[in-house]
Structure formats: C-alpha cells, structure tokens
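Late entry, written up from scratch paper. The run itself happened at the end of the previous shift, but nothing got recorded in the book at the time, so transcribing now.
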Amino acid sequence: MALTCQNNGRCEVKKTDKDLLSFPRDIYHRHCEDACVYFKCVLPDGRIMEGADCYDDFERACRYIKTETKAKIIENLRNSTFEYFDEVLMFVSCRNKDNCAKDAFEKMKSNNPEADRDFGIYLRDRRFYKSDFESCQYENFLQNKTPNKVLCTSRQICDTGKNYDVKYSGTEIFYKAWPSKLSTDRQCGILKRGDVEDYNLKTCDACAFFRHTFKNGTRIRSITGCIEDLIYEFGHIYNGFLLNDKKNIFHYDDNHVIVSCSTGTNCHKDYYKKYLDVYPKAILKVNDTADETC
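Output as recorded:
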C-alpha cells in the first residue's frame, strides 16, 4: 500500500568556511510505493542537498554516491526503518506510517551524534571557486534520456608509484603532472598531451575508467574504454556488483577505482572529476618511491 510522504528539499553551498547559503523549497506531499525517505548528501562544487520524498527522488538528487552504498539502501528499502550515514551521506527510509521520514531522520541524528559531526568533513578545509554560487538549487529532476550507445576512448596507461597523481584534468588523460620523460613504450601506452580527446573511439554500452595497482603498489594501470570490455577482463575483482547497473558505477578501495557513465562521448572524464569532489579520499595506496621503468 502506498505511503503519503513529505516532498521537499533545499540546496546549501559552502561559500566560505563559516558561510552556508540555504535555498528552501515549499513542502508538498507525494504517494510512495516503496518507502518514505529523508536524506542529506554532498555533491560536487561543495553543494549539499537535503530532501524528503520517495527513493527515486533521492537517487536523482544524490547522484554521486558509491555503488555499494546505493545497493545497501535498495536492499533494505522495504524494512520498517533503515538508517545509513557516512561522511558524504545521511539517509533514512521508513514504512511504519505516513510522513515518517523527517522524524526518523532526527531520531537517527539524536541517537548517533557522530552522523552530524562527521557529515561533510571533507568540505571543511577545502575551498571551491565557482563564481555562480547563487545558482544552487534543489535538483531532483529526471535526467535527459541517455543514448543507447556512446563513444569512448580506448586506452591503457601504465605508470610508477612515484609518478602517480589522482587528478585527471583537461585533455591530459590521467595526470595533472606528467613525467619529465614521456615513455615511448607501446606496452605502457603513454600519450603526448592533447592527443586523446577523440582518438581511438569505440562504440560502447557505457564509457568506463578503471585504475588499479599491481606489483605491491609500485605500478598503476589506468584504462579507459567500454564498460563491457572491462567487465569481461576485470569483473571477477568485484564479485558481480558491476553487473547491477553497469552504466552508472562508482567504486573505490585501496587498490581499485572504477567509474562508468552513458551520458555522452567520453563522459567518464567529467564524472571522475565530480566524484573526486565528493570523495577526495578516493585514491589508491601506492609505493610513492617506486620509479623503475613501467
């Protein structure tokens, strides 16, 4: 039986260390088949979304959440109540009565003061330089329909622990700071700057970026290409979770990072940057003294 749930939300922006701009929205109500939910999540550029609605509203508003976290929420969505919190998300779902989520959210914070204390901890010492902070709005709208197929650059790059750099910007495919000596070794596939934007494109179900360590963290392999190719070659690493929603994946641990998307040509580049805004600790553990030839 459908529940009547509060339907409201707001956007906050970390403009300075002590200044949050708030943009409230009027309260409405909506019928939800699965559960009432209340959530607060971190988005790129220092934005924070807070809202109440059905689960699909949460998924649209909080788009940059780890795949495993979303899977855990979905698995427990039909429980009477479910709570989850970490540094980038506070979430509650409930089915015990109409309009239950806001009270359940406040109860979770009261019983777990560390939830409020640790939320947004990654934002506290960071500054964001977007000039148009006033454009912060509560965003739970449906995304444009994604194409059935997308074009993705197919590349592999090997680097040493000493040269590892997590940031991935512009047309420099994986690194802000490239090694002073660019390898010409075809096995490593090191590229000149700016030659990757539309090079070696393949038609894919989704674009993917996969990075992992090997040889005890002395080497890092970075791969872009089709998600179906990566699943075929590396899917065993993740025990099948890649197959749940292969067009919208974000996972990281000490040895692996993977991002996938299907919104346009080489969309993984922009998505990876956005995920790093939300999860700045999504970096690999490497041996940063290793500088042998990769």
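Residues 3-135 form one domain.
(Scratch paper discarded after transcription.)
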